[in-house]
Design goal:
Elements: H1 4-7, H2 11-42, E1 45-51, H3 57-65, E2 87-90, E3 97-101, H4 112-119, E4 126-131, H5 137-148, E5 152-157, H6 160-170, H7 177-194, E6 202-204, H8 215-225, H9 228-237, H10 243-254, H11 257-269, H12 278-292, H13 297-307, H14 311-315, H15 321-324, H16 328-352, H17 357-391, H18 395-399
Parallel strand pairs: 1-3, 1-4, 4-5, 5-6
Antiparallel strand pairs: 2-3
């Protein structure tokens, strides 16, 4: 018979066994979380923009990309048709998002089905059909063919800023902007219904003033009708030109904070790995947030040109610590501050269950990383609203987006 003492396992062996089990679990779960993030970040979004020559397709594409016409990455613009074959324009910060400038549709022998086959209709997630004056038979024919092939389509009535100025010159005493916009929309819907479309979706847009008119409604509609990761890609790719757009972008990014925080947790939970290995991953995430809200110098410069404001004046509206100094030192300071919140609980757990030393360290890292990313999203969103307020002289945005520290209960949001 074996004596009881022979069945006793030394405490050192127990620790080694616990460490081995923890390491295997951490590696497996971290791999699954990384796979989720890879799927999110590699999702493609292909947007087709079409319409007749001179409708402003290329200018609209550049506005969506946040690029000025003179940028070497921008779509070519001009008074004559410059697009003879489908031309992709990659988003400046999101390589998996592309807008396609399709050849014009206004030829006498236009045939929608043939046109769609030529441009490879199956490649696109949806179609935006642009017109600057009237929607014609070609537009309706194209929309019907797109719908018959299982794709969504949306009508954008461009250059409404020019229509408003012309209307004001014609009837200065009776001019009412809201009334003119209603008349333009009603006329567009009437034109398309006359061509046999029952419920056309029409959005009035100015590519030079995206913060006005129906651009936000267009973005909301597109987001509502896209699913999962493609919806996230759309929200990140479209420029944040209204407070509503900033909030939607923030909400979409916030849903995925826990995945980044878990990765930080797993690095700290693996024995022998230094905690500072989290910093490069967190820096990449913060830089992507910073660009998404248009706070990088390139985006601020493009907005300054569009809004005719000095670049320095817009940059001065960025008042958060991370917005002004997105450096490893600043990140490390915030992480250290957040880690203090978990130290007391960590010591208690370690004293009770010594085998969980590494997992407790990972838990503290999770809290710290979550706090950092949550704080960054809040502060970047506030900075973005202040920048927009100054760019477009929106006093409510400037005064209503002061920089406040996050609430203590942030982790339960």
């Amino acid at each position: 018979m074996l004596r009881a003492s022979a069945l006793e396992i030394p405490e050192l062996d127990l620790r080694e066994m616990g460490t081995m089990i923890q390491s295997r679990v951490v590696v497996e779960v971290s791999g699954q979380v990384q796979s989720l993030l890879d799927s999110l970040e590699t999702t493609t979004l292909e947007i087709a923009v079409t319409g007749e020559s001179g409708a402003g397709k290329s200018t609209f594409i550049n506005a969506l990309l946040g690029l000025n016409d003179g940028d070497h990455r921008a779509a070519l613009t001009g008074v004559i048709e410059t697009t003879t074959s489908p031309t992709p324009y990659q988003h400046p910060h999101l390589p998996n998002v592309r807008l396609w400038d399709l050849p014009g549709t206004g030829t006498p022998c236009f045939q929608a089905e043939k046109y769609l086959r030529q441009v490879g209709f199956e490649s696109y997630d949806f179609f935006i059909i642009v017109a600057s004056e009237r929607f014609r038979q070609n537009h309706a024919e194209l929309a019907r063919a797109v719908g018959a092939m299982g794709k969504r389509f949306y009508f954008v009535r461009s250059k409404v800023d020019q229509d408003l100025r012309a209307s004001q010159r014609r009837r200065p005493a009776r001019f009412q902007e809201v009334q003119v916009l209603r008349e333009i929309e009603a006329d567009c819907i009437h034109q398309l219904r006359n061509e046999g479309l029952a419920s056309p979706k029409v959005f009035l847009v100015s590519s030079f003033e995206l913060h006005k008119f129906d651009f936000q409604r267009l973005q909301d509609t597109l987001a509502d009708e896209l699913e999962g990761h493609k919806r996230h890609a759309l929200l990140l790719s479209f420029p944040s030109v209204t407070a509503a757009a900033v909030q939607k972008k923030k909400d979409s990014l916030h849903r995925h904070i826990w995945k980044k925080a878990l990765l930080a947790c797993f690095v700290s939970a693996l024995p022998g790995l230094p905690i500072h290995l989290n910093i490069p991953m967190l820096m990449r995430t913060l830089l992507s947030y910073h660009r998404s809200f248009g706070l990088d110098d390139e985006s601020l410069g493009a907005l300054a040109v569009t809004a005719s404001k000095p670049h320095r004046e817009l940059k001065d509206q960025v008042c958060s610590a991370l917005g002004k100094d997105l450096s490893e030192n600043t990140v490390q300071a915030i992480l250290s501050q957040a880690a203090v919140y978990g130290q007391v609980a960590a010591r208690l757990v370690k004293n009770k269950v010594p085998l969980l030393d590494n997992l407790v360290a990972g838990g503290v890292s999770f809290v710290a990383a979550y706090y950092l990313l949550h704080t960054a999203l809040d502060s970047f969103a506030q900075d973005a609203q202040r920048v927009l307020g100054r760019a477009y002289e929106l006093e409510d945005e400037v005064q209503g987006s002061l920089c406040y520290p996050p609430e203590p209960g942030f982790i339960y949001d």
